[in-house]
Structures are given as structure tokens and as C-alpha cells.
Write a structure and sequence with these properties.
single chain; 202 residues; alpha+beta; 6 helices; 7 strands
């Protein structure tokens, strides 16, 4: 995940140079802090051991928000309808931070206080918004089931990529300049995206 962190750092600078305005005034990148590491350890104690790839992503990469407005790569949030602009949903990379995991875990756990028999049902973590939400359209989420004892968990709900794992999704995202949705229609990708694309080394 340290290599992912380096790639994300490079991409975090490039969209800004192309004029990316992230959603809600958020910074494109928010690296994890030592306090995040402590909180992540506490969450692992409460929720059970996290899938290795997810733990590493939270621990080494942190929050990433490439969603927003960037006309140079046909990305919209407030400046028109995404499908009208691009003919698809680019699915800009959004990754959660430890604070988001804490929020989701507490929201999952609270109703179980009165239903302890349901505790073994597993925790479906809302890992990120789906491609519709990232385009400011009512949609769903990309989810990871934390009850699965696996190193590289499946990310559920990724458009056109059933069964894709977290590492595979990160590779696809890096290969497509942080906008993996373009991989579904590569011939329509904007020319400015070419400068952001690299071959993943992880």
C-alpha cells in the first residue's frame, strides 16, 4: 500500500493542475495520522481483524477524494449532468479514512445492543460512494463485507466489475488516472487523462 500511497500522491497533484475542484470543499488527499493508527487498532479490537488490504489502505493511504468538477477530464459534480457530458460515469477514486470506518462501525453496532443474537451477521462497510453518488446523483455505495476472513476483500457494487477485489480496484484506478470508469469505454476517454495514466507496480 505504500506504492499505492505514492501513486495517489502523484494523482493528487495532477488533477489540481487540471483544475479539479473537489466536492464539498474537501482536500483531494488526507493522509493518515498516528492518531488514526491508534484508532484503527481499537476498531480492529472491536470489529475483529480487518482484511489485510483494507487495513493497509486505511493505515498507509488515507482519505482520497477525486470526485468533483474537472472539465479537462469530463468530470462533473455541480457543472451539469455527468452522463450528458461524458456518456458514462468516470467513477473517480474515493477512499475512506479511519474516521469514516469508525462512523460506520458505530452506526452498525448501535442497533445490535438490543439484538445481540444478530452480532454474527457480519458488517457491510460502506467503503465509498458508487459511481452515481460521485456524479451528484442518488445512487448507492461500494461495500466491503468485514466478516470475510480474506487478505484482499471483494468490493461490492463496482459498476461493470462484479467480484473485483480491493487491490484489483486500486490497480484499475491507478491505471486509469484515478478514474476507473473510463476503462469500460476506453475509446471515449478524454485526451487529458492520458497524462495521468501509469502501469501499476503493485
Amino acid at each position: 500500500m505504500r506504492r499505492v500511497h505514492r501513486h495517489v500522491g502523484r494523482l493528487g497533484d495532477a488533477p489540481a493542475e487540471l483544475g479539479l475542484v473537489p466536492i464539498a470543499g474537501l482536500d483531494a488527499l488526507k493522509p493518515p495520522t498516528p492518531a488514526d493508527h491508534v484508532e484503527l487498532d481499537a476498531l480492529a479490537e472491536e470489529a475483529g481483524a480487518l482484511p489485510f488490504a483494507l487495513d493497509a489502505c486505511l493505515r498507509h493511504v488515507g482519505r482520497v477524494v477525486f470526485a468533483g468538477d474537472c472539465p479537462a477530464v469530463d468530470l462533473t459534480w455541480t457543472e451539469g449532468d455527468q452522463y450528458d457530458v461524458a456518456g458514462l460515469y468516470p467513477d473517480p477514486l474515493v477512499l475512506p479514512d479511519v474516521e469514516h470506518l469508525r462512523h460506520c462501525w458505530d452506526g452498525h453496532r448501535e442497533p445490535l445492543r438490543d439484538r445481540p443474537e444478530s452480532e454474527g451477521a457480519g458488517f457491510l462497510f460502506e467503503f465509498a460512494p458508487d459511481e452515481l453518488h460521485k456524479a451528484n446523483i442518488s445512487g448507492s455505495t461500494h461495500d466491503i463485507l468485514l466478516a470475510e476472513a480474506t487478505a484482499d476483500p471483494v468490493v461490492r457494487g463496482v459498476d461493470g466489475r462484479p467480484g473485483i477485489t480491493l487491490v484489483e480496484y486500486l490497480r484499475l484506478s491507478i491505471a486509469w488516472g484515478g478514474m476507473p470508469g473510463w476503462s469500460l469505454q476506453p475509446d471515449r476517454a478524454p485526451s487529458a487523462l492520458a497524462a495521468l495514466r501509469v502501469r501499476p507496480d503493485f
